[in-house]
Amino acid sequence: MRRVTGIGGIFFKAKDPEALRAWYRTHLGIDVQPWGGAAFAWADEAGNATKGTTIWNVGDAASDYYAPSTSTFMINYRVDDLAALLAALRAEGCNVLDKTDDSEYGKFGWVMDPEGNKIELWQPPPGS
User: Fold this and answer.
1) Does residue 44 carry a pLDDT above 90?
2) Would you give the DSSP letter of residue 89?
3) How far is CA 40 from the centre of its chain?
4) Residues in CB range of 15: below 8 A, 6 or more apart
């Protein structure tokens, strides 16, 4: 079974998310959208568009979305078969969180790494 196939997103918290987003927009040229982040479209070596995006997002430090982690960041990894991977991780003794989510954006599950960081696993919808 293939496990992680790519990075779907990088999420981190800021004490002043608006100011930090503005800094990234001004100094690094990131096209920060009103929802608080940017979507980087994938391309091959020749610069031709391919299916897939990587999300970058700055959230509010007060958010509890990363709980039970106390880390200021969370990485979202793309996977091919979320249910099979979560079952394998459980069988390997990993701390897999009970909650999963299935929406128009795909299927999501979470596991805690040994350092206490919450890792988001994402199975994109077909064709994404």
Assistant:
1) no
2) H
3) 13
4) 61
**Do the beta carbons of residue 106 and residue 122 sit within 8 Å?**
yes
At 8, list the tokens. 């779907």
How many other CB atoms are there within 10 angstroms of residue 119's CB atom? 19
45-59 residue pLDDT tens: 898 988 889 999 999
In 3-state terms, the chain is what percent helix, strand and coil (to 5)? Answer: 15, 45, 35
The answer to whether 4 and 77 have CB atoms below 8 angstroms apart is yes
pTM: 0.89
34: left (phi over 0), alpha (psi -120 to 50) or beta: alpha
Peptide bond into 34 cis (omega under 30): no
Q: How far apart are CA 127 and CA 40, in angstroms?
A: 17
The residues, any chain, with a CB within 8 Å of residue 59's CB and separated by 6 or more, are 11, 12, 13, 14, 17, 36, 65
